[in-house]
Structure formats: C-alpha cells, structure tokens
Amino acid sequence: MTMKSKASVLSYLYGLQKFGIKLGLRNSEVLLQTLGHPERDFPSVHVAGTNGKGSTSSMIASMLRAAGYTVGLYTSPHLIDFNERIRVNGKKISDTALIRYAARLQSVIDERGATFFEATTAIAFRYFADRRVDIAVIETGLGGRLDATNVLKPLVSVITTIGLDHTTILGTTIGRVAREKAGIIKRGVPCVMGVMPAQAQKVILRCAVMNSSRVIAVEDITVDKSADGSLSFQTTAGRHTSIDLSLKGAFQRSNAAAALAAVDLIQERGFPVSESAIRDGLHRVQQLSGIEARLQRVGARPLMICDVAHNPDAINVLAEAVAAIPHASLHIIFGVMKDKDYRVMIRRLVLLRPKFYAVQASIERTLTAHEAAAAIREEGGSVRAYAAIASAVRAARRAASTDDLILVTGSHYIVGDALRVIKRRTGRKK
Questions:
Q1: Domain segments of the chain: what residues?
Q2: Which stretches of 78-197 are DSSP H helices?
Q3: Do 384 and 356 contact (CB within 8 A), yes or no?
Q4: Does the 6-289 domain belong in CATH 3.40.50.1820?
Q5: What are residue 406's DSSP bridge partners?
Q6: How far is CA 219 from each of CA 253, 275, 402, rounded to the nearest angstrom?
Q7: pLDDT at 324
Q8: H or E element: which one contains 192?
Q9: Pairing status of strand 355-358 against strand 405-409
Q10: Which residue of 47, 241, 295, 392 pairs with 158 in a disulfide if CB–CB is 3.0 to 4.6 A?
Q11: What does the alpha-carbon distance between residue 209 and residue 297 come to, in Å, rounded to a whole number?
C-alpha cells in the first residue's frame, strides 16, 4: 500500500488488527531497532493499571508541561481522531508526521506481522525522539509485562489500580492480573502503587522486592479538603496544598495522589517541578494534556456528561459520582463492547433508575444496540434501542427537562462517537 494520505495510513494500520493482540516484546524490539531505538533517547514515566491510567498519565504530563518541559504523552484508545494517541505538549501528532513514520516502518511491519498497537507504539516513540521531548509519559495498552510499551527503562513506574478486565488475556483472578501489571516494574526503578485489593498489593510488593524497587503506596497519602474546596496532599516528599483538580469526581483524588507521588519521584531523578507548576498543571489538565471524557460536561440545560467508564469497577465509581450530581431525572446513552462484563455494568447503572438509550459503536467488537437493550430489560431497566448514536443524542435531549442529567458512557468508542456528533453540532473543534 502506498502511504500518501492519512486515510491510506489509517486503513493500513487498522488493517493490522487482523493480527489481533500479541503479548510479547520481540516485534516491538525489532521495529524499534529499525527506527534506531528511539525509546532510549528520552526519559519516561510508564503507567499501567486497570482503571485511571489515562487520567493519571495526563495529570503527570500536565504538571511536567506546566513546569516548562517538552512532554510527550502516549495514550489509548483515541476518542475522535487517531492522532490523539500521540501528543507533544498537548498537541496531536501531525498528519504529515504520521504518514512519514508509517511509511518508514511499513516493510518491517509487514515482515514481522506486527499488530496495530506494536506499530503505533513504534511510531510514537520515534516521534517523541525526533521532537526531542524532555520526558514522555507512556500508558500501557493492555496488561504490562508483555505490552508493546514495556521495552522502556523508565524513571518511574506507576500502577494505578488492579481489577478484573480483559480476563481472557490477563487472567481471571486479581492475583494473575496484578502479576501482568507488575511486569512494568524494572530493577532499581521506583514504583507508585495505587489503591487496590490486598491480594494485588502483595503481588506488586513481591515483584518490587525482587527488583530492588522502592514503592510509594497511594493509600499512605492523606488528602484533606479545605473550606474553599481546594485539596491538600501529604506525600512522602512533603505537602502539596491549594490543589484545584480540573478533572472532576471524588475518584480523581486517588489518581491525583498517584500522579503527585510520581512527580515527587521524577524530581528526585533530576526534573524539578515547582509547587506553582504542580497547582497549575492539576488545575488545567484538559488544556495542557488534551484529555477528554472524564466526567466531561459537554452540554447544559439539560446537563450532559461524557465518561469513558468501560468495565464494572469504573462504572461503580462513575455511578457514585453521578449520584452526587444534582439532577431531576437521569438519561443514560449506553453502549459497550461484547467482551466486557456488561451485565454487571448494567446492573449497577439500573440502580440509578435512569431511562436508557441503547446504542452501538462503529467497530466489530461492539454489542449491538438491540443486544444491549435486551440485557438492560432483563436487568429491569427502561430502554429503547437506537441504530445511530446521533439519534440517541437527539432523543435524550428531546426527552430531558432542563433540570435532568444526560450521561454518555460504557465505552471509549461510544463516547468518541457521541463527542463527534456533539462537536459537529456545536461547531467545536478538538
């Protein structure tokens, strides 16, 4: 395939999905060798976890950027535009650069039968090296131990949470999932451990001891709320005060604690970050990093919120956050991937007594709108299925009063499709 346009590049990269998910580092090592080992050309922070890794990665990147560093940020999946996955100082990789790197890698990708994520990771690392980033924050794609990103020797490793997700690949017990996530811990590299079950903690601490890795536990960080609503975090390095988190929801406090612990450790490794940069970075996470759809308000009267919760643990946290938002009635535009434990997700959302609008994403792994609607009915929910997300958005807005709340959730892909519709209507650009 000749790669002369973004459309041809994306067609090629998405076509690599036929190779599925390959857990292992050999393809990544060969691709990166072809590119001159760019992963060795920049310091990094490596972030894994079942939930919260996107928010935590973005908070770290935002604080570092506020401190004046040139910062790479690699996350997945994207919401609207593929280029969102690869950012420098909050700005997406250009189409021109994407085309250039994909063309450069095509022959070795084909020779190795590399996967979509292996190819994308190699492109990101070469781009960051060429842009001479001071530091890059790298989020794992799946798991950790055998994830394509695990070729890094980072300054700091972060494991945000451990829960049951992707069980057919990572394992059906907390211990097995924890072992995969703990695989990002490198010898002598300090690790931040998020709030997680005791069984997962034991696995991570055991792995850290084997690797002579110091562990900072988020549960040991105290968080206080002041009368003005600002937060104070007491970490092992000191007290961070007057923090106003721009990512909303009480659950973001533990993500912020993990990000602050990581930044404390980064400073020990020679990257000073002032308290004013910490406050500015956490106050402007969306603006400085580009992250979206974390309790993101995308409409008012009725209030409309998008959140990428996509597994039972994330839905539980989201449901608590939604219950705390004043509203008359609740409308949920919901879609989910068929490989998720979607009945548990639906069961939790039904407790909020919403009106459901079942939808489906524009990818093969999606549960169809009619399948989602059937599951919602079986769990006692009121629902109607919609073939198009745009139709569901229109229906929810028509049905909602000005005091109601409309929530879009269940999958990154569902939220991405909804944001595309919403932004097209309002004329907003990403």
A1: 6-289, 296-426
A2: 95-112, 116-130, 167-170, 174-181
A3: yes
A4: no
A5: 304, 331
A6: 11, 22, 39
A7: 93
A8: strand 191-193
A9: unpaired
A10: 47
A11: 43
Kindly give the pairing relationship between strand 71-74 and strand 86-88. Answer: antiparallel
d(CA 154, CA 280): 25
For domain 296-426, give the fold.
Protein-Tyrosine Phosphatase; Chain A (3.90.190)
| Cα 90 to Cα 120, 122, 429, distances in angstroms | 18, 19, 14
Q: Please choose, from the candidates 249, 235, 239, the residue with its C-alpha nearest in 3D space to the C-alpha of residue 55.
A: 249
- Which DSSP letter does residue 240 get? E
Backbone angles phi, psi at 74, to 5 degrees: -120, 115
Q: What pLDDT sits at residue 227?
A: 86
| Residue corresponding to tokens 């590119």 | 35
The answer to whether 334 touches 356, Cβ cutoff 8 Å, is yes
Q: What is the DSSP letter of 337?
A: B
- DSSP secondary structure code for residue 163 in this structure: -
DSSP string, 351-399: TT-PEEEE---SSTTBPPHHHHHHHHHHTT-EEEE-SSHHHHHHHHHHH
Tell me the C-alpha distance between 304 and 310, whole Å.
18
Closest among 20, 6, 266 to 123, alpha carbons compared: 6
Query: How big is the chain by its Cα radius of gyration, in Å?
Result: 21
Q: Which two tokens mark 314?
A: 């994330």
Distance CA 254, CA 223 (A): 9
Helical segments of 159-251, H only: 167-170, 174-181, 198-210
- pLDDT score at 430: 44
Residue among 413, 426, 399, 407 nearest 364 (CA): 413
Contact 45, 262 (CB under 8 A): yes
Q: Residue 12 and residue 116: Cα distance in Å, rounded? A: 9
Helix (H, G, I), strand (E, B) or coil at 332: strand
Consecutive sets of 10 residues in the chain, 430 residues long: mean pLDDT of each?
Answer: 84 80 78 92 96 95 98 96 97 95 89 89 95 98 87 97 66 83 95 94 95 96 91 93 93 95 96 97 97 92 95 93 96 95 96 98 91 97 96 97 97 94 67
Please check whether residue 406 is in contact with residue 298, taking contact to mean a CB–CB distance below 8 angstroms.
Answer: no
Structure tokens at 418: 């909804």
Amino acid sitting at position 210: M
Amino acid letter for position 28: S
Contacts of 201 (CB under 8 A, 6+ apart): 193, 217
Q: Which helix (H) or strand (E) holds 14?
A: helix 6-15
pLDDT at 23: 62
The backbone torsions φ and ψ at residue 151, rounded to the nearest 5 degrees and listed phi first, read: -85, -5
Q: CA-to-CA distance for 256 and 283, rounded, in angstroms?
A: 11
